[in-house]
């Protein structure tokens, strides 16, 4: 009974924000090694540390019962997790029941052709695909893998399957800044929305982030010298702000965690593949959900840990524009908390 009544409670943090969106990293492993995300020789977690698919389903389902309306599966690369479709199909019961508004995924697209139809059939309507360049050599240099063609083929397969695809592109001063207008035009020409992201100082990588940081505020000003950008009121509940590009007709998003801070409306938390809940991408605070999850088949302890976690959701992140030679703001990589 106590458990039941606790489950009725939504997830409102001390600043009055209601958590309705959970990003779930289903694995820290990835088939790419993007230079801004990982070092070339990444040490991945022992598989034994990961939550099983059943455990991931159980935690997600508790969040859904607590009022979460949107789930995004990410990683690492979610499509390299063995059995990922079993998890997607199982979670889709919450779409069928109406408890969940959206089940979606962020992927690098390398394995998308093999999964696109299954994702659509399991109830996914849209996915995000990360793509930093249309130039094969540039793509290969950033991703440390020559697989642009597979990604483009995966995007085509997703569109053919009826999935709406949004492209996510990290803006990199040296690698892709000059190519971004072409990439935006390419995306809009195919009916794809695209969002640009500032590099965030997460985890040790092999290069100095100052060399790659581009302020999207400056980039937007530059774009306004050749495009007409109109602000859109639309919000995704996240940090992206959107404009319409008159010349292409498409929608362009900007995620600017370093040059702006939109934390006052943050509705999301992030679960790692080992069951650690992070209340903010840009802060270290976390609560372990794996121990209470494994302690009993009853969800009371898990619900209590979630309550404790939400009570500590910080007011804002405190990312700073990277300073040459500085250690990363946070030691963990994006692949741990999921992008
Ligand atoms: N493998 C999937 C993918 O590539 O989309 C999902 C995980 S990946 C960590 C999610 C997103 O985070 C990608 O768009 C990636 O470019 C972005 N990302 C990774 N490290 C980042 C960083 N340090 N700063 C900004 N974005 C980052």
Strands, helices and their partners?
Blueprint: H1 2-8, E1 21-25, H2 53-65, E2 70-74, H3 84-91, H4 93-97, E3 102-107, H5 112-121, E4 126-130, H6 136-143, H7 148-160, E5 164-171, H8 180-189, E6 193-198, H9 216-223, E7 229-231, E8 240-245, E9 251-255, E10 268-271, E11 276-278, E12 286-288, H10 290-295, H11 300-310, H12 334-337
Parallel strand pairs: 1-2, 1-10, 2-3, 3-4, 4-5, 5-6, 6-9
Antiparallel strand pairs: 7-8, 8-9, 10-11, 11-12
The chain binds S-adenosylmethionine.
Give a quick rundown of the structure.
The protein is 30% helix and 17% strand. With 339 residues, it is α/β, with parallel strands linked by helices.
Jot down its keywords:
about 350 residues; alpha/beta; 12-stranded mixed β-sheet; 12 strands; globular; binds S-adenosylmethionine
Question: How is this structure best described in words?
Answer:
The chain is of the alpha/beta class and 339 residues long. Helices cover 30% and strands 17% of the residues. It has helices spanning 2-8, 53-65, 84-91, 93-97, 112-121, 136-143, 148-160, 180-189, 216-223, 290-295, 300-310, 334-337, and strands spanning 21-25, 70-74, 102-107, 126-130, 164-171, 193-198, 229-231, 240-245, 251-255, 268-271, 276-278, 286-288. The protein has a twelve-stranded mixed beta sheet with strand order 7-8-9-6-5-4-3-2-1-10-11-12. Strand 10 and strand 11 (276-278) form a beta hairpin. Helix 2 packs parallel to helix 3 and helix 5 packs parallel to helix 7. The protein starts with a helix and ends with a helix. The chain binds S-adenosylmethionine. Residues 30, 34, 36-37, 74-75, 77, 106-108, 130, 168, 170, 197, 199-200, 202, 334-335, 338-339 line the site of S-adenosylmethionine.
């Amino acid at each position: 009974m106590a458990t039941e009544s606790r489950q009725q409670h939504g997830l409102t943090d001390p600043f009055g924000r209601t958590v309705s969106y959970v990003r779930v990293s289903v694995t820290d492993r990835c088939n790419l090694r993007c230079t801004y995300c990982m070092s070339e020789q990444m040490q991945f977690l022992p598989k034994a540390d990961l939550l099983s698919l059943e455990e991931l389903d159980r935690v997600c389902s508790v969040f859904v019962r607590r009022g979460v309306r949107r789930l995004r599966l990410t990683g690492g690369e979610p499509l390299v997790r063995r059995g990922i479709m079993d998890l997607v199909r199982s979670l889709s019961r919450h779409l069928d029941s109406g408890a969940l508004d959206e089940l979606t995924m962020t992927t690098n697209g390398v394995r998308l052709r093999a999964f696109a139809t299954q994702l659509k059939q399991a109830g996914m309507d849209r996915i995000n695909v990360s793509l930093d360049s249309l130039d094969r050599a540039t793509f290969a240099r950033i991703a440390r893998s020559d697989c642009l063609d597979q990604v483009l083929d995966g995007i085509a397969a997703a569109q053919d399957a009826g999935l709406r695809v949004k492209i996510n592109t990290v803006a990199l001063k040296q690698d892709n800044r000059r190519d971004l207008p072409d990439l935006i035009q390419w995306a809009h020409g195919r009916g794809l929305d695209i969002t640009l992201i500032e590099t965030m100082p997460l985890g040790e990588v092999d290069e100095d982030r100052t060399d790659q940081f581009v302020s999207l505020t400056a980039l937007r000003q530059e774009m306004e010298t050749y495009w007409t950008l109109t602000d859109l009121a639309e919000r995704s509940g996240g940090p992206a702000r959107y404009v319409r590009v008159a010349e292409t007709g498409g929608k362009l998003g900007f995620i600017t965690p370093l040059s702006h801070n939109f934390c006052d409306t943050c509705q999301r938390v992030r679960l790692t593949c080992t069951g650690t809940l992070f209340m903010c991408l840009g802060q270290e605070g976390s609560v372990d959900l794996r121990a209470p999850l494994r302690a009993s088949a009853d969800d009371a302890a898990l619900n209590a840990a979630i309550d404790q976690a939400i009570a500590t959701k910080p007011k804002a992140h405190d990312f700073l524009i990277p300073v040459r030679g500085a250690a990363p703001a946070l030691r963990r990589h994006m692949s741990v908390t999921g992008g």
